[in-house]
Amino acid sequence: MTHTLTHSDGFGLLRLPTRIHFGNGAASQIAPLARELGRRVFVCCDPFLADTPQFERTCAELRSAGAVLQIWTEVEPELPVDSVHRAADAASVWAPDLVIGFGGGSALDLTKLVALLSSHGGRLSDYYGENAVPGPITPMIAVPTTAGTGSEVTPVAVVTDPGRDLKVGISSPHLIPRFAVVDPTLTRGAPTAVTAYAGVDAFVHAIESYTAEVRAPEWTEQLPVFVGQNRLAGLLAEEAITVIAANLVRAVADPDDEAARTEMAYGSLLAGMAFGSAGTHLSHAIQYPIGALTKTPHGLGTGLLLPYVLRGCRPDIDPALRRIGTLLGVAETGSDPALDAIRRIEQIVADIGIPASLAELGVRAEDLPDISARAAGISRLAGNVAAAKPIERIPGIVTAAWRGDHT
Ligand SMILES: NC(=O)c1ccc[n+]([C@@H]2O[C@H](COP(=O)([O-])OP(=O)(O)OC[C@H]3O[C@@H](n4cnc5c(N)ncnc54)[C@H](O)[C@@H]3O)[C@@H](O)[C@H]2O)c1
Ligand SMILES: [Fe+2]
């Protein structure tokens, strides 16, 4: 399919690992890749995976290839800042040549931050925001065991700082892992809720990167980390949308459906490659305060919000929605292809068990103004949609999502 930008200056930007190895069995590539980067390895491994045969095999292969390992398994949910500093202190003493992350998005984000702090020192707060990492960091190999975050290819890591209400991101091209090894067999055993929430978040990454603002970059200046919708990211997003739409419901319904699991690992990888340069937008901006308020998983919130965001940004994003409708196979069936695309997305979200309204997450009517104000405050995300006056749209989107109002 031809990707048509709404802007005549069709630019492109991708920043990626230098190598991406994807496929069932690709985990056997970890040891030879590690060997290219050095001998002393600090490994951040999800605690629930540390005693699995897959991880033990990887460690044995690394040791056979001459590596010496320090294995860190204290990966805490939501990555509290203190836990990251403890891991980074241990890594600094070990002085690794490379850091390997083996686990879900939390383990991979920890790996990025360990590599950052063991290279440049200081506190995490020194690097909050965009482009605050001063230079290259210890090389990383990222090995995801969930299909969703795309962290194995993205320039961002997210932490919880008790001094702040909302989770906070560190984003820099220097955080992109050197190598990504995506072996779908490693996602076997992920709990159904993780398959659903991480999987739908990948769907949101793909659709938001595809409906992101188009703005020609100032090539003469330092580029922002997220530059908006662009030709190269668009190609990847189209494939990600197609693949995830066809496989998410199957992967959630049947954990033994190996083909669906493989496709989800592929789709989430592509979605990460796309949003790593284009960025995401309103579902992510609005999920941050909702996640803080309700302590619900990131993907549950972004998946719930996506259809309301798409409805709230019409008709400005209708050209992209019509192309999405073609990818989803609904474009020819209805009188309004953009609306048909949203309805199909709503169906997928409902079919994997995402609640239809914010009220069902425990959000109260009196919380809505504060949620809207905080979401609007994350202007880097909130402003990254291809719709005019995005901030003014937030209260309407939040109210519709609270009511479960699909009109
Ligand atoms: N850096 C990025 O680009 C990016 C993007 C989106 C989200 N995130 C971050 O990623 C985190 C969420 O990551 P996630 O959704 O992958 O979840 P996670 O890493 O927090 O893991 C969720 C749970 O699944 C378990 N698990 C993971 N893989 C498993 C497997 N194969 N078998 C059995 N159990 C398994 C973990 O032990 C954990 O209990 C959040 O902190 C979020 O902020 C980062
Ligand atoms: Fe996300």
Automatic annotation (TrEMBL):
Give the UniProt keywords, A-Z. Answer: Oxidoreductase
**Domain Fe-containing alcohol dehydrogenase-like C-terminal intervals:** 195-380
Source organism: Occultella aeris
Similarity section: Belongs to the iron-containing alcohol dehydrogenase family.
Identify this protein by name: NAD-dependent methanol dehydrogenase
Q: Which InterPro entries match?
A: ADH_Fe/GldA, ADH_Fe_C, Alcohol_dehydrogenase_Fe
EC number(s) per UniProt? Answer: 1.1.1.244
Question: Is Oxidoreductase one of the keywords UniProt gives this record?
Answer: yes
Enumerate the transmembrane spans.
none
Return the broad EC class. Answer: oxidoreductase
